[in-house]
Amino acid sequence: xxxxxxxxxxxxxxxxxxxxxxxxxxxxxxxxxxxxxxxxxxxxxxxxxxxxxxxxxxxxxxxxxxxxxxxxxxxxxxxxxxxxxxxxxxxxxxxxxxxxxxxxxxxxxxxxxxxxxxxxxxxxxxxxxxxxxxxxxxxxxxxxxxxxxxxxxxxxxxxxxxxxxxxxxxxxxxxxxxxxxxxxxxxxxxxxxxxxxxxxxxxxxxxxxxxxxxxxxxxxxxxxxxxxxxxxxxxxxxxxxxxxxxxxxxxxxxxxxxxxxxxxxxxxxxxxxxxxxxxxxxxxxxxxxxxxxxxxxxxxxxxxxxxxxxxxxxxxxxxxxxxxxxxxxxxxxxxxxxxxxxxxxxxxxxxxxxxxxxxxxxxxxxxxxxxxxxxxxxxxxxxxxxxxxxxxxx
Length: 394
Description:
Elements (H helix, E strand, L loop, with lengths): L7 H6 L8 H18 L3 E4 L2 H8 L11 E5 L5 E5 L3 H7 L5 E4 L5 H11 L6 E2 L8 H11 L5 E2 L5 H5 L3 H24 L6 H15 L9 E4 L20 E10 L2 E10 L5 H20 L6 H14 L11 E3 L15 E2 L12 E10 L3 E11 L4 E3 L8 E2 L1
Parallel strand pairs: 1-5, 3-4, 5-6, 9-15
Antiparallel strand pairs: 1-2, 2-3, 7-8, 8-9, 10-11, 10-12, 12-13, 13-14
Helix pairs in contact: 5-6, 8-9, 10-11
């Protein structure tokens, strides 16, 4: 089951598809090992594709198949992947130790066998996330002979919150792709056009600008549909008086930056314009408060106060922002590891990246607002878009 370095192709292809230099991943792994040791665990089994990628560069559209990175507190990591994924893994990582399992194999058995051969008896494992079912977790625990697996889900996320210079450069690229897609989407809004044409133009422009596959599809909705959260395109033809909600993310080396804008076909109702003005004031207020030393809660509470003062509390009801970085479907954000929301006491630091969607909804009628992806600098927040935020009238 273990891959031994006997194939000529291994030397020729190792790391040729890697998103970053080997030194970048070595530094991340060193910090991760220190965090695992500090947690008191002998090893961490990493399941999430985002964190596996962050640590190794491993990426594929085939992450629906079970994969696990075993990272000991002392020693080198070993990655377990499906046999079909072997040579892709060789190409986009610098890992010296890769183990494969066959399609007919039991992944839980393969993982426990790997742990036994490495002498790891009591690892922690990432239990949160999309890709470890309770059934599989239970089987792994049973084969390890423990009543329950130790949850190590919170060990590594703090390390991912602050981006390296290489990560920030990737996010800047992604932001340029997103802006190209948004410009195309706004220009595509015309009477008689449909939502599919708008989505197609957004995707084409972002992709032509350089975007790789996005972790979530663009959000395009018009008319009453625009008043419902997270709607995607459904062939609806634009009519006079329609609101159009547009949001997408660009992707560079799996790092994402998102952008959202609002369009109206003709004059917007006075109430919609008031809501739009309020959302922009809230966005401006939040961005102005982002600086090292502030808490995540303070940023949200500042925006919430603007919205509450205008009487639109019920039209908001969500966080003002969330972390951005590595993303795989089904989500383009890192909101599961850090949010700008009430009672989140995490201190903001330079190198963090946030998407701030300031949206107000009249449910079933319209959504208005704008968003920015920002990098936290030593003195404040740097928005990555130069696109005007106002309500665009077409």
